[in-house]
Prior knowledge:
- This protein is of the alpha/beta class.
- The protein is built from 33 helices and 18 strands.
- A hairpin with a 2-residue loop joins strand 17 (654-657) and strand 18.
- Helix 5 crosses helix 11 (217-230), helix 9 (164-174) runs antiparallel to helix 10 and helix 16 runs antiparallel to helix 31.
- The chain binds adenosine-5'-triphosphate (ATP) and magnesium ion.
- Magnesium ion is lined by residues 38-39, 605.
Amino acid sequence: NPTISFGYLDSLNAAQLKAVRHSPQTPLQILAGPGSGKTKVLTSRIAHLILHHRLPASSICAVTFTNKAANEMKERLTKVIGKEKTAEVRMGTFHALCALFLRKYARSIGLDGNFTICDAEESKKIVAPLLKKYKDDLAAKDITLKEGTVLALISKAKAKGLSASDFLHEVQTRSHGTRDSNGLFTSSTTVNDIDLVVAEIYDNYEKTLRKNNGLDFDDLLLFGVKLFVVNPDAVKWCQHVLVDEFQDTNVTQYDLMRAIAHARCVTVVGDPDQSIYGWRSAEVGNLARMQKDFATTKQIFLEENFRSTASILKTSLAIVAQDKTRIQKSLHTSHPVGPIPVLRSFLSEQMEASFLAGEIKRIVAHMGGVLHWGDFVVLLRFNALSRTIESALQKEGIPSRVLGGHKFFERLEIKDLLAYLQMVDNPQFVPAFMRAINTPARGMGEKSVSELLARADASKLSLVDLVERIHNGTTPDIKPAVKRKIGTFVSAIRVLKTMAAENAQPSDLIRRLVELIDYEDHLRKTQPDWESRWENVQELITFASDVQSDLQDSIAIESSDTETPRDTPLRLFLQASMLSSEGDQQNKEGDNEKVTISTCHAAKGLEWPVVMVPAVEQGTFPFYRTDDVEEERRLLYVACTRAQSLLYLSYATQRKVAGETKTRDLSPFVSSVVRQNPPLFADSPSMLLDLDRKVICQVLKRSQPDPVQVTKHVAEYNKASRNRFSERGTYGDDTVLNAQIPQNTSFMNFTLARSP
Length: 756
Ligand code: ATP
Ligand code: MG
């Protein structure tokens, strides 16, 4: 076809080209370090499968680690194969892909297509009453067991692909306990008491979920595996699977990949040095497992880093190389050396934060406008560290955004509204009913609600149907008061149901819902910060319309499938909200003009011109609660390798932790490499002279600033800094060194004169 352009192959190096052109019939592992173009190769390979090998786009499954990564891949692919074809490719996280196929083919494995995906909070609500039964028994043995722990253990079992009965069996063969007449274990000596209780709860939890027509996140994967294993047609659904960030897949995800690939067409890319999700049951051993299960697997290694300067790469590699169990590999860059990464210490976390904020300003000025706020990221070991950073940036007037910070869909106001919509879509789903029935408060006490539950159970009606009948008198009331109390509830549900049946847009459903239950008024009366919560409701409406427009394309494609019950817009919207995860927020307009604050975990796969990692301290790196120190080291490596041109590590010798000031030491991951010759770190920031500017622009493929611009920016910066300095007399750690500043030192030189 003369219209096809294979231009996407032009920019690849020889190893990358080999990987893209590798036969689609032979399983392939691409193993390579950060920034070596793994994700780029994966995207090009998808294009190649479609354009060269002529695979139908809809028969390709591309698995990414986050929805955000899927969106980025979509953008890259759109440029090569166009919007229409890109929309046909099945692209998303393992969870999203499972949801997609399960909605279509749920019936073939005994599920209803309108299942509700439940999150941790809803799962907790289901587990709470089940756990209650064991309360006395556990108390007698002096065991405290929380819902969260039970769910974490169940989730671990599911990640290994163990069903409730598998798990029970495993626990029983391990245990020597004996059961009493109630079926409870009586032996007080076994260490497995908790496991046994969890095994029994697991079983009941599953039964309850099925009754509610609900699936938790792990179920999505487990039922996905089942779907692909039992369904003879599954061979036709997918002709090639590609998995990014393969080192972070768990056993169930691996099983799923194997089931989808039918032991043939599969491409995975990964980097064992970047495996950072062991705490969520990821198994780097899946790489070896794949070589066994897919006997003809070929490996291709990429050894050229296209992302970072040579000095950043060298320092990062020195950090990860301290892991003695690691397999040595080669990774080089053709980029120039560039400024050496900075390592600084401070007396407090405030000084650290204000240094970083000041440094961002200085760099922007000294790059003469080539770098913008959006080119900077501050990477944190955990979210709680963000407060100090955010306020320091704010003080300097630097706009910032927190990536994967507050989890939007876990907010009270969002969950309230989603509960109503879940109930409309799946009346079987009890947690949604329980939340909605008293939002806003309708005076339905715990007793009345549990009576409703019991009656619904006995009459095999959903709670929604039951209250409707009570309301219109077809079923006798429990107490006359109930009928009155549920009036507005029932009529709201009725309106929404009618709208949903007519395929109303989810954004319209939400607008109508907040009117029907007078939600703004409810927030005003019950929440002190109701205004920002009401803003979030507006944001939810925006999200709903975004999903709608995204779906227009894919619905058009799905219409060729005749066997499936059509997904309603409401169902697709609910699914999108339940599957959005940490770090997934869409880039909003103006985000490119903001400094990003993110966890190291959420930064996986991404890159920024300037990366700053504060709190590189013992207790933070490694995190004091970890049981895998090497994973913590790799996490720091992942953070450092996000940087393209400048890297800053810093620590505070005193930091407030949970209200108490604690003395802190430099992280052992860094202290072990800090005394090397030539040095891996500089203790003061680079001056950013012409040569540095040239290197930075070369790495970022940006054109160099006009020297006149640089002089202008620096002059403005110096003036502003001097003013600020004389006004406040304090600027981060400058106070400490105040006495040493010679009269006529420019602020920039002064900044450089400070020593750690
Ligand atoms: P990570 O392990 O961090 O996920 P990765 O191996 O997936 O990294 P990519 O994100 O695909 O690496 O690529 C890193 C950067 O290098 C991107 O900016 C990409 O566009 C660029 N890049 C990759 N290959 C080439 C190439 N052949 N020529 C020029 N730039 C390239
Ligand atoms: Mg990548």
